[in-house]
Design brief:
The protein has seven helices and ten strands. The strands form two sheets. The protein has a six-stranded mixed sheet, with helices on both faces. A four-stranded antiparallel sheet has the order 2-1-4-5, with helices on one face. The chain is α/β, with parallel strands linked by helices. Helix 2 packs antiparallel against helix 3 and helix 4 packs parallel to helix 5. It has a single domain, classed as P-loop containing nucleotide triphosphate hydrolases (Rossmann fold, 3-Layer(aba) Sandwich), CATH 3.40.50.300. The structure holds adenosine-5'-triphosphate. The site of adenosine-5'-triphosphate (ATP) has 10 residues, from helix 1. This is ATP-binding cassette domain-containing protein.
């Protein structure tokens, strides 16, 4: 396995003169699954968008394997990003979407997916919320990128599909570095190799699950 390293530093972000993210540094390596937590509105999605390059942050530095990637267009082949929202046009069929999203070899593999194979001729607009979410996660994880940022991959999925997506994330982490943020915290904890929390604008390392309570993300009676 070839190891790749993504390093991002100097991330500051304010909205309406309110500081949201302050001097964030993050390192992600192949094989790592970083679980990212934080209260609603703490800036998790904004941080992922800044790393991916669709939200500007003036002092950001980003390096892949030690090479500067400060020009966002050079990042497109390096990082895959799952939005919270739908990114596929409604009039596409599932098959068209797969063929346009991944290379030929991977497309064959995605079309053979147990869950997707009966949906290939269906239009995107006719998929259920969970079916669409699963398709998007599968495509993002199947593309060539070295790193993947997943914003709420478990959202709207049934328990069985969550298990399938957890497995998919774990399998793909053999070849990719992955960040997962999702309020299904137990599932995130189960697959993550490392945990971080955004707390008062700072990105902090979580070593013990109990710190998620101390930092106000979980209530004290939360059971793991
Ligand atoms: N373009 C914007 N203009 C102004 N404020 C914004 C903008 N984008 C995000 N915000 C604010 O920044 C804060 C962080 O938003 P963000 O979506 O990153 O939070 P989050 O941690 O992902 O939250 P959640 O867990 O609820 O999804 C919120 O208060 C949000 O209203």
């Amino acid at each position: 396995m070839k190891k790749h390293i993504l390093e991002v530093s100097g991330i500051q972000k304010s909205f309406n003169n309110k500081l949201l993210l302050s001097d964030i540094y993050l390192k992600l390596e192949t094989g790592q699954i970083i679980g990212l937590f934080g209260r609603n509105g703490s800036g998790k999605s904004t941080l992922l968008k800044i790393i991916f390059g669709i939200v500007p942050a003036l002092d950001k530095s980003i390096f892949v394997n030690g090479i500067s990637k400060n020009n966002a267009s050079t990042l497109l082949n390096e990082i895959g990003y799952l939005h919270q929202n739908q990114f596929i046009p409604n009039h596409f069929s599932v098959l068209q979407t797969i063929l346009l999203s991944v290379d030929k070899q991977k497309a064959h593999f995605v079309c053979e997916d147990d869950f997707l194979k009966s949906l290939l001729n269906q239009k995107i607009r006719d998929l259920s919320f969970g079916e669409l979410r699963y398709l998007q996660v599968k495509l993002i994880l199947s593309n060539q990128s070295k790193f993947v940022l997943l914003d709420e991959p478990f959202s709207g999925l049934s328990p069985k599909m969550i298990e399938i997506v957890m497995l998919l994330i774990k399998e793909n982490s053999q070849e990719k570095g992955i960040i997962v943020t999702d309020h299904h915290y137990r599932n995130v904890i189960e697959i993550a190799t490392d945990l971080r929390i955004l707390n008062n604008g700072k990105l902090q390392v979580i070593n013990e699950k109990a710190e998620l309570m101390q930092k106000g993300y979980l209530i004290n009676s939360a059971i793991f």
